[in-house]
Amino acid sequence: MKNQNPQVGIIMGSDSDLPIMLEAAKILDEFGIGYEIKVASAHRTPEYTAKFCKTAVKRGIKVIIAGAGGAAHLPGVAASMFPLPVIGVPIKTKTLEGMDSLLSIVQMPGGVPVATVAINNAKNAGLLAVQIIAAGDNAILNKMIKYKQKMENDAVAKNKNLKI
Amino acid sequence: MKNQNPQVGIIMGSDSDLPIMLEAAKILDEFGIGYEIKVASAHRTPEYTAKFCKTAVKRGIKVIIAGAGGAAHLPGVAASMFPLPVIGVPIKTKTLEGMDSLLSIVQMPGGVPVATVAINNAKNAGLLAVQIIAAGDNAILNKMIKYKQKMENDAVAKNKNLKI
Amino acid sequence: MKNQNPQVGIIMGSDSDLPIMLEAAKILDEFGIGYEIKVASAHRTPEYTAKFCKTAVKRGIKVIIAGAGGAAHLPGVAASMFPLPVIGVPIKTKTLEGMDSLLSIVQMPGGVPVATVAINNAKNAGLLAVQIIAAGDNAILNKMIKYKQKMENDAVAKNKNLKI
Amino acid sequence: MKNQNPQVGIIMGSDSDLPIMLEAAKILDEFGIGYEIKVASAHRTPEYTAKFCKTAVKRGIKVIIAGAGGAAHLPGVAASMFPLPVIGVPIKTKTLEGMDSLLSIVQMPGGVPVATVAINNAKNAGLLAVQIIAAGDNAILNKMIKYKQKMENDAVAKNKNLKI
Amino acid sequence: MKNQNPQVGIIMGSDSDLPIMLEAAKILDEFGIGYEIKVASAHRTPEYTAKFCKTAVKRGIKVIIAGAGGAAHLPGVAASMFPLPVIGVPIKTKTLEGMDSLLSIVQMPGGVPVATVAINNAKNAGLLAVQIIAAGDNAILNKMIKYKQKMENDAVAKNKNLKI
Amino acid sequence: MKNQNPQVGIIMGSDSDLPIMLEAAKILDEFGIGYEIKVASAHRTPEYTAKFCKTAVKRGIKVIIAGAGGAAHLPGVAASMFPLPVIGVPIKTKTLEGMDSLLSIVQMPGGVPVATVAINNAKNAGLLAVQIIAAGDNAILNKMIKYKQKMENDAVAKNKNLKI
Amino acid sequence: MKNQNPQVGIIMGSDSDLPIMLEAAKILDEFGIGYEIKVASAHRTPEYTAKFCKTAVKRGIKVIIAGAGGAAHLPGVAASMFPLPVIGVPIKTKTLEGMDSLLSIVQMPGGVPVATVAINNAKNAGLLAVQIIAAGDNAILNKMIKYKQKMENDAVAKNKNLKI
Amino acid sequence: MKNQNPQVGIIMGSDSDLPIMLEAAKILDEFGIGYEIKVASAHRTPEYTAKFCKTAVKRGIKVIIAGAGGAAHLPGVAASMFPLPVIGVPIKTKTLEGMDSLLSIVQMPGGVPVATVAINNAKNAGLLAVQIIAAGDNAILNKMIKYKQKMENDAVAKNKNLKI
To answer: What is the β-pairing status of strands H8-12 and G86-91?
Structure first.
């Protein structure tokens, strides 16, 4: 549902993060929720990023999902300029296993929260964005309830085929 | 706004976490959003916790804020039973500075996100809950925009009185 | 000895953990102790997991071995519902080397212990389960004494063939 | 129940660990289980420690609880010489918050498990020892089921007096 | 030399960081180098911070020293908008000892360096700013050579009064 | 621009670090800044290193870039003997992911700063050296302003070709 | 010089550590110092290890080098039973990069030191053993002085062939 | 035995480390071994330090004990200039609990070992120095054997007075 009545903005610090961040887009497609997706670096393209975040409410964006690695400032920078929820995805780095990304994203100061998910777990960022929209949209809430029920059924069913 | 048309459920693993978790309640009071607040341990009171989470949607709860320390399972357990956003507050521990709490909360598996904030930062959990409600409520969104503007003005004003 | 008079319940958060957890089963086979083995996630299948744990004493289970990775809540959740020993196996994760799994399992709050073994060391979880049963069963204790003696002999014998 | 038909041996690397380790003894007293309690260092008194561990089965000991800090070898050394369960309590250190103690105790090699509990949590070591004995003793199992039920009731009751 | 022909801009995320950051100012006073000093948060006052950094070259600023704690984005944000050196001072936090601040500041992506000094060591940030100016100013270089010589003499002299 | 009016001295603890450190040289080539490049170990060749650093000002060197891994003392040793800026590049190690290198370089005591960049990020060390020279050289400053502008344009342009 | 007038005892917890520990033997060969080399586990072969350590002085052993990984107790156990220097080599583990091995070896309690070298650096353990013997043997001291001189010359010479 | 036929050189990076480092001196006094004690910083007094280390063999020094904190280079710098054993004492720091000091000291590159003891454990550095001298001096070896025996007796005796 790319670029169709987007309710979610997905941004990432580098196009090398795209394969990971597409997991979030896949979830939004599954729930029929429109989104935008852009490369926007807090450090290399501060103007572009600021413009994206400051005009997002007007474009109808209700949640921003931001992925970044290392000194991962993108989610926090977005949160400083956007009044609705920002979800941060810490990207695993080559050197410190993503611990640097995680701490740079989660340890935000009082007044400017970032909703942080697990390292590299853009799928969960997508699901959290769906849940946020579901908080104000009963149709999406019902889809989420079914999604969770199906996930449970699938997991239980795995016990039938355990190779031991 | 305790117990008045609650839209947010605040739970914590131990009553010793109450002083920290009240920071979230204070923010909700400031925005005029109703909430419930309970001690509910994933480990000591699993039945009570399960009941609280499974019936929350029916009670009108849109977001659960869960604080816990050490092997901090409460936010994840809530997320397994509640289809709307769960915010996790890692409580600082006496031994490992809250690193154990943080990793136990943020590193959730695919399918079950927890929106994690900084260690001990229940204030930000409160603000994130407000933002989640604001995504579906323009009056709250406008309050949040004003809140952020006031925070900016107050911070800039501090430069007038710097003691150097 | 799968499913024969099971005294040990082996559960894991995901079927991808099966190759590691089978090391525990192998030890139980070696000692002739029956076991059950199931996929049961604290987050994806909370009902199934609760049922497994709450009825375990009635089925004759004396020890539960639970393996999980990341925000690894399964052992703690089992310990909240089962009155006999729960052994936790922290599974190594792709991002933080299993440090997240270890802290999520070992740092349990007062009242609800989990007997934690080394990261990925399901073999030791199996041996610990045997020792727990041996505490109330002299035949198993004698087998364990012989097992340790053989391990010592084998290790000393390695000095004969050191390639230097 | 000190020195009365002891079923549990409590040892610690230094007498400065005594206040922490007494939490384990208190639990055993509560369940009416006899125990021995000794200072026995893996490094300063290796002979004494070896003798304590090697003769423990003959004295009727079914579980050893060993507390140690820093390069915390006592639980592993006990496990090398005792064929029944050894529970390790990592003691918090002045320098690395007990992370050194935890890793020194939990990361045991294949063949020689130590059942590790949370840093400084000797209370949980006591409860785990009770659960191990309960696996072969229905009277103790019933006490443990009641203990857990009371803990749950007490925790739920705290909600009546929350000061908010 | 506050506000006199400033060559160095000192900024910090919160006025609570002022006592630490004044150590940098003290060094600049000692070398007779002018500076500005402001509270400017990457998260709470993004506009103010952007304006400060983008106009700094025109005001004659040659180096920016930025101190911040937790998810410490201020130095990186300054570096994205200022073409001359930015020095980052990781401020020690209440929870993770400043490890979060350090990683958030030092692990910058390719293209946007931040010259990071030790946790809380604003004195060294001041000295590094002096060295940067000294690279293009022989008078300051000579003062720095004397400063280092005096530091060496003072340290050696301490051996005369060692209380042993 | 190797060995042509060198303004930057690049040193590294081992010739195995050369591929990483050449990223700094490449940046200096791009800006037309001369440099020297040498293997000089704090531990294996202390005399050679001392001579290199103590005579550097006389040779016209304005910045030293030093890369080292493990107990990475080279940048600090250079900083003790050179009165102008020393930039430290922590080299990733085989065992601790470069955390040892980072802490050995960044945590310098008061009086002797090292300007530390990200692990393995010699490119940023090169850019920081350029910025330091630019603080006293307007031609280089203008090149740096253009460099940053081009980097921004290139990053924004990536959005045209995102494969989604 | 294996088994010829051995002055150094090399032990390791597992024969899988042999390739690493042989680096120590190679250094001893280079200096013409005799040594023994054995697999001796603190946990799997406590009796064999105790005998090796307690009788070592009588066999002429002046230094023990002990390598171990994970909960690495072998060096500390040797130090508890041997009155001359014990050198510990932390072996890198599959899960925690050898941080567990390092802390288990270096953080020994007061009274029982272990001379710890870098993770996997058995070569340095060999050199340290040579230096310990050199403290009482001028011929070995002179060889060590030459060894260090050659190392310095070789390292400086690498500058002639740097491929840039 | 300060300054009497010194066999051990004790150095430290700052006079604030003196109270900790005196624990090493106390042990040497107990064994009747002469020592020198000096403040000598790798960073603030490189010349003084180099002179101390290079002339130490001539002064009869057989072991250097070096204590330092943070980016703790003193032991490694001493080891680069002294052909006999160097013992490193990582001093606990205000920010990272001494983990920075430990890694800066222990992770030395191949060719230049530092015998590292536990954080702040100068007592063990003193004992290790005694053991090194004992390797070439039977009178000291006999004292060390007695010291260990007394330590064992004292520790066992503590069991008589355990307050339980």
So the answer is: unpaired
